[in-house]
Amino acid sequence: MIGSRVVVAIFALWIAAGNGTAGAAGSAASAGASRYLPDPRLTPGAVISTHTADICVLGYDRAHRVWHDKAGTLAKYGIPQSAAGQFEDDDLVPVCLGGANADPANHWAQPNAGQWAAADKDILEKQVCTEICLTRDDAQLAKYQAAFAKDWVALYRQVIVGKR
Predict the structure, then answer these.
(1) Of 101, 88, 89, 13, the residue nearest 55 (C-alpha)
(2) Angle between helices 118-135 and 138-159 (to 10 degrees)
(3) In the chain, how many domains are there?
(4) What pTM was estimated for this model as a whole?
């Protein structure tokens, strides 16, 4: 029940950020990143916690990884099983940021290759999750959750590229 309310809250933040009825690519479309972003109609993102006190404890990430339906995620995106090795079944909002691993609304078929592939998002996740658990800032956690749900490539450009 809580997860549904949080999904609605993230979607509201996404709309408030100026996305309205934007296509699957959000703000990254003009930068050629659209194929590396999930369709927000299929994967709007979902969270189970908005508190650093919950997520920044030893073992949280491992204890909340329960999803085992890559076939379902691929089917949702119309990707044949024969192409499964080209994709990661990824949590749009990372589990380490309170992303809901058990909710299909948080899963998408993320490409393993290309400019904005799974490895790039993993770098961003590590950076942001470390920052959140060092600062214990719930307001910043909510901003990062919304940013991942909206356009992780834009967040990557801001957090990773912007600090180089």
Answers:
(1) 101
(2) 140
(3) 1
(4) 0.80
Buried b (16+ CB within 10 A) or exposed e, 15-43: eebebeebebbbbbeeeebbebbbebebb
Q: Which whole number is the average pLDDT over 17-26?
A: 38
Domain that holds residue 97: 2-163
Cβ-proximal residues to 70 (8 Å cutoff; 6+ apart), any chain: 84, 87, 89
pLDDT tens for 78-134 read 999 999 999 999 999 999 999 999 999 999 999 999 989 999 999 999 999 999 999
Please give the structure tokens belonging to residue 56.
């920044």
Determine whether 95 is exposed, middle or buried from the number of CB atoms within 10 Å of its CB (0-12, 13-18, 19+).
Answer: buried
Distance between CA atoms of residues 124 and 159, nearest Å: 7
